[in-house]
# Entry
Amino acid sequence: MSRRIVDMKPSRRSVLKGAAALAGTAVGTGAVTGFPTIWAQNIKDVTLRQFGTGVSAYNDIAVQVKKDLGFTLELAALDSDAVVQRAVTQPKSYEIVDAEYWMLPKIVPSGNLQPMDTKKIKLFDKIVPIFTKGEMPNGKKVALQGTAPIKVSYLNGKDAKTFSKTPTQWFTLVPTIYNADTLGIRPDLIHEPITQWKQLLDPKYKGKASILNISSIGIMDAAMVCESLGEVKYGDKGNMTKAELDKTLKIMTEAKKAGQFRAFWKTFDESVNLMASGEVVIQSMWSPAVAVVRSKGIPCSYVPLKEGYRAWAGGLGLSRALSGLQLEAAYEYLNWYLSGWTGAFLNRQGYYSAVLETAKQNMTADEWGFWMEGKPAQGDIKDPFGKVMEKAGATRDGGSFETRMGAVACWNAVMDQNKYMVQKWNEFVAA
Amino acid sequence: MIRSQESGVGDQESTRRRPDSRLPISVPWLQALPLAAVVAIFLVIPILTLAVVSFWDYTDYDLIPTFELTNYTDLFGSWVTYATYASTLRFAALTWLFTVVIGFWIAYFLAFHVRSKTGQMACFLVCTIPFLTSNVIRSISWIPVLGRNGLVNSALLGLGAIDKPLEFLLFSDFSTVLSYVHLYVLFMVVPIFNTMMRIDRSIIEAAVDAGATGWQIVRDVVIPLSKPGIAIGSIFVVTLVMGDFSTIRLMSGGQSASVGLLISNQLAYLQYPAAAANAMVLLAVVLCVVAAMMRVVDIRKEL
# Structure
């Protein structure tokens, strides 16, 4: 629904500056061995069109790309369903897709994604092992329920349309951002501790609860709730059977008919408005949305729950149509993405980024301590745009990176029974 | 949009004039060609494509050209379809009822109570001003008015009329119908006003001379003579509500479904053939509704 297009038209000055900066980078990294001058002159003409969900489409990133790399990045933000739709049906309309991992089982079989060569990703070994090995940096295995990134990270070959269970040289997405989602609440309007998913359906919050209406994500939140209620036992919440889907949505439909939900939301902004206006006091929410509500001076917490988090992750993939200079530029962009500036930029908004070491180098010790280690803030914590998000003394809801990502129970997913799930979800919405 | 009495008379004269018999037979065909081409390219071909695709099969990422009835059997086999059609028809009926009542009286006031032509045009333009902004903006602007902490609730709470906010005001059937009526009432006003302006004032004078009361004039003269306008307005309103998918999502908080929303969801999930089947059925239903209206009022005859 919400669609914004950020078109970076380069000024002459920025192009010149960019070319100069690029020359520096190129010499520094040794990327230009082979065809140095042509590459340096042509790069400024390269335009990469990237589209994806709104969460990581920041104009600032495009500006920084122009500054650091010299070429133009055009960003377009769509809602999740529209991203899948475009990736599958209009492969020529983009060079880079910023997709979420759960979309891959739909996008990869279409053949529109070009497997990327891990040898060309310089910091590949430094990428958080959640994506490369399926474990936390401390070696703890990450939950596999749902479309866990490790299940769809590797492809069988250079032209493959199928996933590999074991690591190969061919990778699907370079991770951009990921996070652990839970319920957001208004602590000023809720006067008890919220510790379990089942409290979303507590009759106390009748007419004041909300859930997100993107079926593939909403169904997972619904499953967390039903499991927490003890009503349904799941084999794999990320790949439910028809019977499990029926039971889950029956419980949700009954709650809906009893007037539990004030509204359903579909976009980031809707969730912020529902919470900020007080229409809703408890709902499924995304971390930066909580931050936005809080930055308006309205109390909002992102509560860690006993049953764990529902996690999601996004990454940048290459279009099949990319080749030649444009492909080289795309690899250059991916390497730049991992080199720290964006990592810090994204971490400062409550997301997690792919390469932690480089992000850390670009953040202050206090910022790193607050966002990543769960330590109390020493001074005011600002977002990348300079707005104060947290006052000194605050700690992050849920604690450190290890605690939060370590408590992931399942990942956003596309199920084998997807068609049936969508049909059931439509029934739930129509009920 | 508004044809005055004079131009109406002109039209009748021009239809009476005989076509020039010396023209070759091909000329009228050629004259009709541009419109026929536009209709064929932008209406007939897309609908035929839709009809063809509605028999295809699909996966998450692919369309499979074949001929099967699954999309239709799925559609007719699910209670969601019936529930959604029932709810869409209910919204259409409620919206129609309110727009026809409100629209009729607005048009009546403009046509018979505002005396000067300039006054009528001025009032009419004032009516259209809110329609210069987009549908979505006009829907969204209701949210701060009707919300739990919105204008209406704060005012009522402040006056002491209620002790806790009225929940039904927003994200409910009430807010959905309210928004529809607000959005579409003009589509009722315009055609009714147009037909009313064409009512021969001497008929009304005759009724007055014959001793009819004001109410009798409205019932026995104005309403029957405004029927074509009411019918045209009704077609506009009903088809607009039947096809809507954005207003209902915003105003019901995503909790009510409409056929349009169902189709838009199917498109979002790449289920194009299912969406096409649904669209064909919706088209058939809307055509039936319009046909039923045309049976009640023969627009061509009365216009």
